[in-house]
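Q: Given only this backbone (422 positions), what sequence would you predict?
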């Protein structure tokens, strides 16, 4: 019998906008998570982490064999350096596994402040060639995050010419500017996208005009849909084998501001694909259900971005984007009583008697059931769970466990498969 091919399994790296999301990312299959502190990151609107949250997050992640990285990837101005030395020293003392940095001056400050704190070069550095990767390798950097504009062929060439870890994005929002280095937000809202204040101006709705001798001439008819400058979201769920064979060391999911349902669903889906392929590459077959799971949490139509060709108008969103997410996160399982076959559930969206729900979890196959019984914590019958964060007891058909999610299909927003990939 021929010996089975053994592959180096890449790291699955997931976003975590707050402590709760970190725990879900880790439990649903992430090998590492990246978070933002309250300074120097590019997601000022995310929940972000205090030092105390970081300590708890690091302890939880390490207990489950996962790592925690902190994004400190602003393009720094003079005043941004205040307090930076103390910040990196504190991150090292907390036990953060690595920091993600874009600015060379910030790299130097981090090295001086915390020499043993691992540094990864951010996608904000727009790295698109092996010579730049080699530059950072020569500087002693162990990992670079490639620009989103790099093709799969270019990834392969970079790995052939260098001996350094490569991290690439596999899922999530794409920016219409080069590696996210946008200035629209600055001009329209005085919020600097490269210092954490992006207002997502590219996703606003625009009408088109031309200036004719000082007079505006509308280039649209009344009632026409507005335009955006917005890309479809990246999705490489069907192409994980190609990325692994190209030698990618870390597969990165975007979305520190996304929901728990999004993180759990997307991480769990990619975890299954990575494990299945690395377990048996010769016998691997992609399961349609992995793609279907992604669609249940998708925010926008999906694309493979720059990996196989330069994006065209087919990879952009024109007019109002279709509403993609087909499911609502309805409840979080807190506990399960095997004697009564009831789950204690924390309500996250309204659900009621008679509705069909789906349970998913990191260590279980999903299952569907109808809700036949809801009771409050005192055992009184209810016809619905109406109040946010309300704790109720629900009769369940199969055993569940804490951190399992209960979700409900949206009645008016069923996704058509034609929106999945172009």
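A: Predicted residues:
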């Amino acid at each position: 019998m021929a010996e089975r091919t053994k592959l180096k399994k890449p790291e699955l790296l997931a976003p975590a906008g707050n402590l709760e999301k970190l725990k879900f990312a880790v439990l649903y299959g992430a090998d590492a998570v990246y978070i933002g502190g309250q300074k120097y990151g590019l997601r000022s609107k995310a929940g972000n982490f205090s030092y105390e949250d970081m300590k708890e997050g690091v302890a939880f992640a390490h207990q489950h064999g996962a790592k925690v990285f902190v994004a400190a990837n602003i393009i720094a101005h003079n005043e941004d350096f205040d307090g930076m030395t103390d910040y990196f020293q504190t991150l090292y003392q907390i036990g953060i596994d690595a920091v993600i940095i874009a600015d060379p001056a910030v790299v130097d400050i981090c090295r001086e402040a915390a020499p043993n704190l691992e540094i990864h070069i951010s996608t904000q550095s727009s790295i698109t060639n092996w010579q730049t990767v080699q530059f950072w390798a020569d500087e002693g950097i162990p990992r670079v995050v490639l620009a989103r504009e790099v093709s799969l062929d270019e990834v392969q060439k970079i790995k052939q010419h260098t001996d350094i870890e490569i991290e690439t994005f596999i899922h999530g929002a794409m920016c219409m500017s080069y590696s996210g280095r946008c200035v629209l937000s600055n001009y329209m809202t005085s919020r600097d996208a490269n210092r954490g204040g992006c207002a997502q101006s590219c996703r606003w709705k625009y009408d088109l005009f031309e200036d004719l001798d000082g007079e505006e001439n509308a280039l649209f008819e009344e009632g026409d849909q507005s335009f955006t400058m917005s890309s479809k979201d990246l999705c490489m769920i069907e192409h994980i084998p190609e990325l692994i064979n190209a030698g990618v060391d870390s597969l990165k999911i975007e979305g520190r501001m996304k929901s728990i349902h999004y993180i759990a669903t997307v991480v769990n889906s990619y975890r299954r694909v990575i494990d299945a392929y690395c377990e048996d590459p010769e016998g691997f077959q992609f399961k349609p259900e992995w793609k279907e799971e992604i669609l249940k949490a998708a925010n926008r139509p999906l694309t493979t971005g720059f990996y196989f060709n330069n994006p065209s108008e087919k990879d952009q969103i024109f007019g109002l984007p279709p509403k993609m997410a087909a499911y609502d996160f309805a409840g979080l399982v807190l506990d399960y009583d095997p004697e009564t076959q009831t789950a204690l559930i924390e309500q996250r969206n309204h659900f009621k008697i008679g509705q069909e729900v789906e349970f998913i979890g990191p260590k279980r196959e999903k299952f569907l059931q109808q809700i036949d019984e809801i009771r409050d914590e005192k055992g009184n019958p209810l016809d619905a769970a109406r109040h946010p964060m309300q704790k109720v007891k629900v009769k369940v058909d199969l055993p569940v466990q804490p951190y399992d999610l209960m979700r409900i299909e949206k009645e008016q927003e069923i996704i058509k498969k034609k929106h999945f990939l172009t």
